[in-house]
Structure formats: C-alpha cells, structure tokens
C-alpha cells in the first residue's frame, strides 16, 4: 500500500506570519492539533502543533496575538511522498519520532498529510501495515529520551 491510498487531502494550513491567536482559532474551528506551515506557493516550511503553541507562549511571556507561527513552528520538517510505501513512511515517523508527515511533491508543495491515525484506520485493508509494524512505530515514537527517564526516575 502507498501513502496516496490513505493520506488526507483536506488539510488546513497556516502561514509563517500568522499570529498564534489565529492558529489557535483555526485549530479549534477544524478540531485539529497540527497544521503544516506553507509559504506563498504552497511549499512546506514547517509544522506547528498545539504543544508548540503552548511552549512558545510560555517561553516568550507574550500573548497569542503577539507571537507568530514562525517563532513557534518546528523545522526542518520531515515529509513523505504520495508514492512512498506505508512502511517507508512508518520508517520516517520512527526515525524522526513524529506521528504526522506532510505529503509533498518533488517541489515540496503540500499534497496532504499522513498520520498514525490514518495508518491505524486503514490497517484492515489489504496491503496495509501490519499491527506489528504499527505498534513498533508507536513504541519508537513514544519512547522517552534518556534525560526524560532520568528526570522521571528522580521524581522530576
């Protein structure tokens, strides 16, 4: 199975100059916690999550209208292509410890998004990723860094 068979194409995006207030409203309106950040011609520049928004606001001690997406977004952005196999995409998710990948063309223009949710929901289809592939990918993504484990084990 290839990415194009299960990816979402109805993707909401944002621009780097937008305020986090606008991003929060967009995420609430569309019930999502992840937005690809695209430039003027649709090329993916980064991604922003609801967690990135919270972290940026806490770190900058400014209100949402006064912090831009560019200040909070993550880059470099990890992507996949429509023709990639699901196993290739799962490998990228594991390697970069992300649950979502923007799907881009050869010019880095956004074509859609592939999420772990999409992979799980398609797991009953012929040629899809196996439950073992999915669980292994999630295990790697959710594995704590050694510093996180030390903080947890020391009560922090």
Which secondary structure elements does this structure contain, and how are they paired or packed?
Blueprint: H1 20-30, E1 34-38, E2 44-49, H2 50-60, H3 69-72, H4 86-96, E3 100-104, E4 110-115, H5 116-121, H6 131-142, H7 146-153
Antiparallel strand pairs: 1-2, 3-4
Helix pairs in contact: 4-6
Protein described:
By secondary structure, the chain is of the alpha+beta class. The protein has helices spanning 20-30, 50-60, 69-72, 86-96, 116-121, 131-142, 146-153; strands spanning 34-38, 44-49, 100-104, 110-115. The chain has a single domain, classed as CBS-domain. The protein is 40% helix and 14% strand. The strands form two sheets. The protein has a two-stranded antiparallel ribbon. It has a two-stranded antiparallel ribbon with strand order 3-4. Mean pLDDT is 92; it is low at 147-153.
List keywords for this structure.
156 residues; CBS-domain; two-stranded antiparallel sheet; two-stranded antiparallel ribbon; alpha+beta; single chain; 7 helices
Radius of gyration over C-alpha positions, nearest whole angstrom: 17 Å
Number of domain modules: 1
Mean residue pLDDT: 92
Oligomer: single chain
Q: Regarding CATH, which class? A: Alpha Beta
- Unreliable stretches: 147-153
Reported by name, the CATH topology is: CBS-domain
The CATH superfamily appears as CBS-domain
* Largest sheet descriptor: 2 strands, antiparallel
Give the CA-based shape.
globular
Number of helices: 7
User: What class do helices, strands and sheet pairing give?
Assistant: alpha+beta
* Helix proportion: 40-55%
- Classify the beta-strand content into a percent band: 5-15%
- DSSP, total strands: 4
Q: Would you identify the CATH architecture?
A: Roll
Largest sheet, order of strands side by side?
1-2
Instruction: For the record, give the distance between the C-alpha atoms at the N and C termini, rounded to a whole number.
Output: 43 Å
- Pattern of helices and strands: HEEHHHEEHHH
């Amino acid at each position: 199975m290839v990415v194009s068979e299960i990816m979402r194409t109805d993707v909401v995006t944002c621009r780097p100059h937008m305020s986090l207030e606008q991003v929060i409203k967009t995420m609430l309106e569309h019930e999502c916690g992840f937005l690809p950040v695209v430039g003027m011609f649709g090329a993916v520049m980064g991604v922003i999550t609801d967690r990135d928004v919270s972290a940026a606001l806490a770190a900058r001690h400014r209100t949402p209208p006064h912090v831009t997406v560019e200040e909070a977004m993550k880059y470099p952005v990890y992507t996949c292509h429509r023709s990639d196999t699901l196993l290739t995409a799962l490998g990228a998710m594991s390697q970069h410890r992300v649950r979502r990948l923007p799907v881009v063309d050869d010019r880095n223009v956004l074509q859609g998004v592939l999420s772990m949710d999409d992979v799980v929901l398609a797991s009953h289809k012929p040629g899809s990723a196996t439950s073992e592939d999915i669980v292994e990918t999630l295990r790697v993504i959710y594995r704590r860094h050694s510093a996180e484990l030390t903080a947890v084990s020391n009560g922090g």
